[in-house]
Design goal:
about 250 residues, alpha+beta, Homing Intron 3 (I-Ppo) Encoded Endonuclease, Chain A, Arc Repressor Mutant, subunit A, 3 domains, three-stranded antiparallel beta sheet
Length: about 250
């Protein structure tokens, strides 16, 4: 394919982009130096910068003392590919984000870009190693439910992800979350860890005194409800009336 160059919109006479995905600056005269005198600046092919562009390649353009970070594939598409329907996104036909030749690009809708080719499958596959199944147990070790990952467990139970994760990782002082024991699936047969006696169980109550849930400690209650652990303790000690919108007492 013969390389064709066109001015970049908004940077006419300063930068050009080609149908092969290259960007160059043009020979020009600028004002600069110690005396703000005219200076000749020779044009050159610019080096793409993959860092900070989420897998795509881009670079920085400068005009009137201001710099702008741009994606090369969008520069190529705007210069060489008609977009009569004013579609918002540019898709790489071969799914290689570094191949920015005009014949490899096309304007698409956001949904078309998301669903194109094997992108969805590859994204799901990239997440699978991070998605560890988890098991929810009663404090006596009885398995109650199983979830595909911590995120699903938190979404379905309303218990905070942070607390579930810390329990699964056996973090110090985290024995339960939301009043339940949590383990990664490969540890589901591990005996329930004994809670140190120094930890006092707390009861979460409605304003009328109706009990809602019991937690092995104020820390666990804080992780499950979002209330402050110190304030929960103060409620249990009679120093505060509420914490996180609830009444509290030691079991």
């Amino acid at each position: 394919m013969e390389e064709v160059w066109k001015d970049i919109e908004g940077y006419e006479g300063i930068y050009q982009v080609s149908n092969l995905g290259r960007v160059r600056s043009l020979d020009r005269t600028i004002i600069g130096g110690a005396y703000n005198s005219p200076m000749f600046k020779k044009g050159t092919i610019l080096k793409p910068q993959p860092k900070g562009y989420i897998g795509y390649v881009g670079l920085s353009l400068s005009k009137d003392g201001k710099r702008e970070n741009v994606y090369i594939h969008r520069l190529v598409a705007k210069a060489f590919i008609p977009n009569p329907d004013n579609l918002p996104e540019v898709n790489h036909k071969d799914e290689n984000k570094k191949n920015n030749r005009a014949d490899n690009l096309e304007w698409v809708t956001t949904q078309e870009n998301i669903n194109y080719g094997t992108r969805t499958q590859r994204h799901r596959a990239s997440l699978e190693p991070k998605m560890k199944p988890v098991v929810m147990k009663a404090t006596d070790g009885t398995i109650l439910r199983k979830f595909d990952c911590i995120r699903d467990a938190a979404r379905q139970t309303g218990i905070r992800r942070e607390g579930i994760k810390k329990c699964c990782e056996h973090a110090d002082m985290f024995y339960t979350a939301g009043g339940f024991v949590w383990e990664y699936k490969h540890n589901e047969n591990v005996p329930v860890r004994a809670v140190p006696e120094r930890r006092k169980a707390v009861i979460q109550m409605q304003e009328d005194g109706v009990e809602i849930a019991t937690y092995t400690s104020a820390t666990d209650a804080a992780l499950a409800t979002g209330a402050n652990a110190s304030t929960i303790k103060h409620c249990c000690q009679g120093r505060n009336k509420h914490a996180g919108g609830y009444r509290w007492k030691y079991k």
